[in-house]
Amino acid sequence: MGRVEAIARSIVQLIVKGAKKRSRSPIAWIIALISTIFSFYQLPLHRHRPKVFQDLRERHWGLDEDDYVASFRTEDGQKAEDALQPMGDMGFSGSTFYSTVDKKFLIKSVPRHHEHTFFRDELLDAYAAHVAAHPKSLLVRICDFLASSGLAIGHQLGMAPSHHIIMTNILYGSDEAKRMGMPEWEQWDLKPTSYFYPERDIAEGRLTSEATKSQLADEFHDKLLLTQEQAEDFWRSLDEDTRMLAHYNAVDYSLFLVRIQPNAPAQQVTDPSSSSSPPPAVEAITPRDPPAVPPAPPSWRTGVPSVGGKYVYRAAVLDFFWAKHKMQPRIMTFLVNAYNKLIAHHGPMSITTTPDEYRERFLKLCHEIVEIRDEQESEEV
Question: Is the peptide bond before 291 cis (omega within 30 degrees of 0)?
């Protein structure tokens, strides 16, 4: 079994079967312990703070436990790892990324120590309280946090990621939309681009491959066409979310934006409706099952129609695990400050700036991509 499959198997087995109980037989216990120690990729995992996440799933997001587990089950005759589809792997020390077969959930590893310890020890309770109290929060909905005990060799050598988050998939429904003949859904991972990015800014990017530079933040060269009410609701949620993140010293988070063209058949754009109400095709691609709801549609999780109905937008705030006070970020801040003082002044990186300054630029970006239109206005093709 390969590395990607072994990691997937460990995740699925935990969600479907739960943590294994230790046998009372001393021999069986010793065999199990040896097997655990010599695990390279299929690390033994446990759910961290399971009651917290179960409360979010069931009480606040309306997700029944059986329905949640069903996304990780396989058909008869299939292997456990078949329940997850790999979406990316960055090598033995990097991240892994999976989706459930039904596309409702994404599983992303959090391999860096300073990130998973920040979420586990400092942010988790604040995150849970915030999303519970703010149903319209754009912070991605994290449904589970899985961790390894650290006994396995694979954990100690970094051969497999030791921590994973299970989160909702904002692209849920894109496969069905494609089968309906709709164009590919457009997506952007947005951060303020005015910061110093060594891959882009040193020697005009000639020292770095295009593949590496492609991993930098996207730019959205258009506008979200929203009513005044939609825009204010969008900005209010972002203001509340980023205030909480800044309080806990988080920086470098991003706005994941999805734009859907529900009325246009593939390879062809039809005239948009002049009505501000969602066109019939919007209903077909709007998820109405938990945890996308509550709140009821329209929301930034299910889809907000643009003025005129040409587009439907979804958005979520992702990757808020980088905290300025942790050791690795402090080292990076020192190195960037030294570079700016001794070599060339480029200013801070998005991972070395202050939380308040990053929040200010992030909110400025989120205001700049919005254009407010009257509800009766139609969009131009």
Answer: yes
| C-alpha distances in Å from residue 187, one per residue of 281, 304, 315 | 19, 15, 9
Is 316 in contact with 188 (CB distance < 8 Å)? no
What are the distances in angstroms from CA 356 to CA 13, 350, 361?
Answer: 41, 12, 9
pLDDT value, residue 273: 44
With the CA atoms of 74, 316, 274 and 219 taken in that order, what torsion angle do they form, in degrees rounded to the nearest 10? -110
- pLDDT of res. 274: 42
Q: Which of 102, 98, 99, 28 is nearest to 70 (CA)?
A: 102
Sign (positive/negative) of CA torsion 50, 54, 60, 61?
positive
Residue 269 has pLDDT above 60, yes or no: no
Contacts of 116 (CB under 8 A, 6+ apart): 110, 147, 162, 163, 321
Residue 168 pLDDT > 70, yes or no?
yes
Over residues 108-127, the mean pLDDT reads: 95
Contact (Cβ atoms closer than 8 angstroms) between residue 86 and residue 98 = yes
More confident residue, 36 or 141: 141
| pTM (2 d.p.) | 0.86
Rounded Cα–Cα distance for residues 34 and 12 (Å):
22
Cα(191)–Cα(195) distance, rounded to whole angstroms?
A: 9
Q: Which two tokens stand for residue 301?
A: 């999780």
Q: Which domains, ranges and CATH numbers included, belong to the chain?
A: 3-19+43-168 (3.30.800.10), 174-372 (no CATH)
In the numeric block, which tokens belong to residue 107? 């599983």
